[in-house]
Design goal:
single chain, about 180 residues, alpha/beta, Rossmann fold, seven-stranded mixed β-sheet, 6 helices
Length: about 180
Amino acid sequence: MFFRRWLANPLQMGSIVPSSDALCQRIVRHTRRAGDELVVELGAGTGVISRALLAGGVPAERLYVAEIVPDMAAHLRQVLPGVMVIEGDARSLPDLIPRHLHGRIGTVICGIPLVLLPKLEQRKFIDAIEAVAPGRGFLHYSYCATSPLPARHHGLAAKREAWTPLNFPPASVWRYTPQG
């Protein structure tokens, strides 16, 4: 399913294969969440990171995953019981996440290949994340050797939290937080 989706639209997918267990574990390790906070995953794909988050202790009812591709969203609903699967465009996140949950999100994890987008489109994703998780920033995993986002241009501080040479292709986990 993953490879077929990549063939259909390679710009929506960051890789031709799902994330490795090594990358998933690094993402889980850097996910922050207080007891009543949610974790939101953007671009959940086949759900490998979602399953790692669940195995790492995130309760199913506290995990929201967004997927733009209808077939993949349907697959996620089948393989992630109890998880809130949202079918839609992450740029519309403020409309997709119930209003009463805005500000109650510990970590947003982004698997969307933002590096491939123009700065204006990157900004739309950043603004959508900021609207539901004000001041929290987000984790972004990428296959770039350097920051996939022009952080300063977007008013963000960037920190490479982890590097995963055992992933194919090798990947980094970046934390972006609003400056000032």
